[in-house]
Design a protein that fits this description.
This protein has two domains: about 80 residues, no CATH class; about 50 residues. By secondary structure, the chain is mainly α. It is built from six helices and no strands. GO terms for molecular function: protein transmembrane transporter activity.
């Protein structure tokens, strides 16, 4: 049996984390979208109730699909890295293509192709922003984990520092 890639965790916690993130993200996106859509498409006396009913009916399928999609992406990503023993552009983009092809299988080949290529474009965009966007931003400040943070006592100025500060302010 081959050893998994050393950069990834060899247990399925990341799949559960991805599904949980998809669940939350689907709810965060689906709730306001379907609420506004329900309010817009209802008669004037029932707008609030129609918005709530639209959320209750339409948000759970969106939440489930987004959780399943992200779980499938992580499964395919882990499988590709374990099989190829390298983590590169294709290991990030092709799992999204495969997951996008797996979800709409019951709706026919046209839906499979459309969803797969849309997911491929989205994954390429996310990969580009993640891996090349860091060159635009400044690097985070370096912190040595071996150093202990200064205590409050160290931040109190000593007598010589206070005297130097007083001398500087007297000349101004």
């Amino acid at each position: 049996m081959r050893e998994p890639h050393p950069d990834i965790t060899p247990y399925p916690d990341f799949i559960i984390d991805a599904a949980g993130f998809g669940f939350v993200a689907g709810g965060i996106i689906g709730f306001p979208y379907h609420f506004i859509k329900g309010i817009y498409n209802s008669p004037s006396g029932r707008r609030l109730a129609a918005g709530a009913q639209s959320v209750r009916i339409n948000t759970p399928p969106l939440v489930g699909v987004s959780a399943a999609y992200l779980a499938l992406v992580e499964i395919f990503h882990y499988t590709m890295i374990s099989a190829r023993k390298k983590d590169d552009f294709w290991s990030h983009v092709l799992p999204s293509f495969a997951a996008g092809a797996c979800l709409p299988v019951g709706r026919g080949p046209r839906a499979v192709a459309t969803t797969a290529f849309c997911c491929l474009g989205a994954a390429t965009t996310v990969y580009t922003v993640r891996h090349f966007g860091c060159r635009v931003l400044p690097p985070p400040p370096f912190e040595d984990p071996g150093l202990t943070p200064p205590s409050v006592v160290d931040s109190i100025p000593t007598e010589s520092v206070r005297d130097a500060d007083l001398r500087c302010t007297q000349h101004i």
